[in-house]
Design goal:
mainly alpha; single chain
């Protein structure tokens, strides 16, 4: 009976009920019918107090900043900057696609937002230049997996809150894995483009003068992530306050510098913010109460003992967890996996001496790979829907990119110093 709520979560989720309501339903079932030691009103009170967390403010602020960015001209400036740097390379627009996602991570932090934006902005242009639609869709989905790994990715914030680790440290830990993911994807783009004859967008490499000129035009977009890092490093603001600074910065840049942001845009910006925030925060609140049930029944401790009974080798344990995540990622949405499994697995790996920050990056890269993996990848469906690409054609093109990301996953799993270098340097 102690494990029944976990079974209920998966049954409800696979019948099509959103993960937040699946967690609500299973928790209420447990505290209403299985455990009568806690009064129902205390459980309802716990739902309310779970929302009263100052760190949660980072989520709506960064979601709003990402939405403003799309209307303020920051996205287009970043794309022009990416094109100047990589347009001369084999598979020019494919390389631009990847680099733009890397840059977008510093201002957006949402994989699906990045996938949707680039599906509208870059895929039609790629088709005009001779790229197949399926390849264009595949690289757009694959590159969007980089965006949430670069701070201020929403998943970095969510994991920090769930695992009770520093959100600032999670931010710093994302840079090296994110860059490695981008480099691996650019190598795959180069190999495929060389084979198929996809041409660069520029006849020759941009001159230093051209790069300097475009850097000046894009400087306000490029300064944003560096400002976040500097502010966190010197203690000027917390991650939550950084989100408020991000909103103010994007508004000022959009109104007074790029002059593309208009008052009428705020209706859509507020809609994006409310929809994005409500879905994420509702899941976190439900997960907190679900975590209360698991703590009550000592499920994390039981799982730790069971897994330690299989092996006490941290390298083997991480391999098992990676395989489990990758299989689960084919069938369950990444955010749901992050919310449900992190409270269970963090105690296991920390007891084995694995740093929870390191494990957080392993988890997030895993679920990002799941987001582009058939049959239920969320970025896969976003891109295929917007670009009108058949899933079968998409699947044929996405596998080289998945393999490249798996190589990066193995690197960050077994070389923790790569992940922890920047957090240790900064903090």
């Amino acid at each position: 009976m102690a494990f029944l709520p976990i079974l209920i979560v998966f049954l409800l989720y696979f019948t099509g009920i959103p993960i937040a309501y699946a967690l609500f339903g299973s928790s209420l079932t447990y505290f209403s019918f299985i455990n009568d030691a806690s009064a129902p009103d205390l459980i309802l009170q716990r739902y309310i107090t779970s929302a009263q967390n100052f760190s949660l403010l980072a989520i709506p602020f960064f979601i709003m900043a990402g939405s403003i960015m799309n209307y303020s001209g920051i996205s287009s400036k970043l794309m022009k900057f990416a094109e100047v740097l990589t347009g001369h390379m084999t598979g020019g627009l494919g390389q631009v696609n990847v680099l733009l996602s890397l840059l977008m991570g510093g201002v957006s932090g949402s994989a699906n937002a990045d996938a949707a934006m680039q599906s509208k902005m870059l895929v039609p242009e790629m088709e005009k230049r001779g790229y197949s639609r399926a390849f264009s869709a595949a690289i757009t989905a694959a590159s969007s997996a980089v965006t949430p790994v670069i701070p201020p990715g929403i998943n970095l914030i969510v994991y920090g809150l769930i695992a009770q680790v520093s959100v600032g440290a999670m931010f710093m830990a994302g840079y090296v894995p994110g860059v490695l993911m981008a480099i691996s994807l650019m190598i795959v783009v180069y190999i495929i483009s060389k084979k198929r004859g996809y041409t660069p967008t520029r006849e020759k490499r941009a001159t230093a003068r051209e790069i300097f000129k475009q850097t000046l035009e894009s400087i306000w977009a490029l300064l944003f992530p560096f400002g976040i890092i500097a502010g966190l490093r010197i203690g000027l603001f917390t991650p939550s306050e950084a989100g408020a600074v991000a909103v103010l910065y994007t508004i000022l840049v959009g109104f007074f510098i790029y002059k593309e942001l208009k008052i009428e845009h705020f209706k859509d910006i507020l809609k994006d913010t409310v929809y994005g925030t409500s879905s994420v925060v509702l899941i976190i609140i439900a997960a907190n109460v679900f975590g209360y049930y698991m703590s009550w029944e000592r499920i994390p401790q039981m799982l730790t003992e069971m897994m330690l009974g299989i092996t006490e080798n941290p390298m083997l344990m991480l391999l098992m967890i990676n395989i489990f995540y990758l299989i689960l990622g084919m069938f369950i949405e990444g955010g749901a996996a992050l919310i449900i499994l992190s409270p269970l697995l963090v105690p296991v790996v920390t007891q084995m001496g694995v740093d929870p920050i390191h494990f957080g990056m392993i988890t997030i890269v895993n679920i990002m790979i799941g987001g582009i993996t058939p049959p239920f990848g969320s970025m896969m469906f976003t891109v295929c829907t917007i670009t009108n690409t058949k899933v079968g054609a998409f699947m044929k093109e996405i596998w080289p990119f998945i393999l490249a990301l798996l190589v990066v996953l193995l690197i960050i799993t077994y070389f923790p110093g790569i992940v922890m270098f920047v957090p240790n340097l900064v903090f």
